[in-house]
Amino acid sequence: MPLALLKYGLSKTYDGPAYFARQPELKKNYDVIVIGAGGHGAAIAYYLAKNWGINKVALIEKGYLGGGNTARNTTIIRSNYLTPEGTKFYSESMNLFKELDRELDINLMYSERGHLTLAHTDAAIRTSRWRAEVNKHMGVDSELVYPEEIAKICPQLNLSDDVRYPILGALYHPPGATARHDAVAWGYARGACNLGVELHQKTAVTDVIVEDGKVQGVQTDKGPVYAGKVVQAVAGSSSLVAQMAGISLPIITTPLQACVSEPVKPILDTIIVSGSLHVYISQSSRGELVMGGSTDPYPAYTSRSTLDFKEGLMAHMLELFPFLGEVRLMRQWAGMSDITPDFAPVMGLTPVENYYIDAGWGTWGFKATPVSGKRMAECVANNTQPSLIEPFKLSRFDDFSLVGEKGAASVGH
Amino acid sequence: MKLMPCPLNGPRNISEFICRGEVTPMPDTECSDKEWSEYVFMENNTAGEVCEWWFHVPTAYWFIVRRNSVSEEIIETYTVADFFSKHVKEAGS
After folding, report:
1. Domain A112-176+252-339 grouped into CATH 3.30.9.10
2. Interatomic CA distance for residues A75 and A290, integer angstroms
3. Is A218 strand, coil or helix?
4. Is residue B2 part of a domain?
5. Which DSSP state fits A162?
6. Residue B32: which domain range?
7. Of the candidates A302, A308, A398, which has its C-beta nearest B15's C-beta?
8. Nearest to B47 among A240, A397, A398 (CB)
9. pLDDT tens digit string along A254-290?
10. Chain B residues with CB inside 8 Å of A309's CB?
11. pTM of the entire structure?
């Protein structure tokens, strides 16, 4: 046993380095206020300080750091989207992820597993081919594979014809990965705080102060705070926060449920997704099988669990992996997903001057954490929409120029 | 299993239904593009009591549900005719 550990075990005080420096009291004025300290908010604050030298920033969070959808997603990172805009965007995110643990000096446990999106119908095969061609054109490693190759990539899969929906093929994305989601939020927040950003947890924003179409600051439960620029980076409550600033969003909030099994020895390396069966599964580094499905069938502001979800999920899961019949579920949870009509996010400038939005992250938000932070920081610093996120601007709905990402956003929408 | 009291079929499993979104007034077809895009894409996304269009899939039946989107309590359901003749008139819209 290391002697240092023994020393702390016997001592009443711990004088080791604290993860976060003690945060000062909330001030009255900042350059930028970021509402929401999840992965996205923390990343925006970090890149504002690092890339643009703006460190008089308050990162304000109603609950605790990374306690919302950052902690509720199923940690899958991929870039095999359907549209060129989406593929380019998520590709940059993946490249940032690969360097992130060194940059933030934290172990993100970024683990490349290979990602299979199964196709059980001719229509799904066609979409897979479409995605593979768009992906390859954008330089993303992605290919349509058939059962013979699938059996080599993931021999655990039940490829028999004797099931309700036999597997006809799959979109194979070798760089598909998982990472420790909490560490992403902690790493970004610590990095930001080291550069002078203030993190204020348990501080709820109750209103946004707007005068003559220009944002002035926010009201909080600890009093008003003023800033030249305000960024909204929340999930689940995007519409409610935007309403405070007088902005309407094309978002519906719907619960998304997920669960994990008891931990078992490593049995599944690949990440398996089936859009037609509305299921996805991967094994975490702790050995738990992380499973999820489609969003709930109707909108609600709640994170309860339903039996319908588990019945539907398990019935299909057992067709793919019959051996899971012996495995018990250990834990379940839900997050609130902000779903947009085109399954692409809403990012950048808003009708309110100096108020910026990073919302509509439905079921595709975690994998976009680094790129959203980087590009939103660029947007805030220059007050212009960066070209990479130009297609995701809020005003695209006024122009009827949507980014149709439904075919690749997640499962079963 | 959560039950939805359908005005036509009585209480049925909620998985037999589709929620089509909040009841909102449709603008005149002569309206501006901006008004139309707001009608088509923007959502109130109400946290609390809300009136929505619901559809019973097996019987292809549309009706209106008043429910709470936070507590998920279903408060009342209406036939379309009843809802628009009585309740919408009373609300003065």
Report:
1. yes
2. 9
3. strand
4. no
5. S
6. 13-90
7. A308
8. A240
9. 999 999 999 999 999 999 999 889 899 999 999 999 9
10. none
11. 0.94
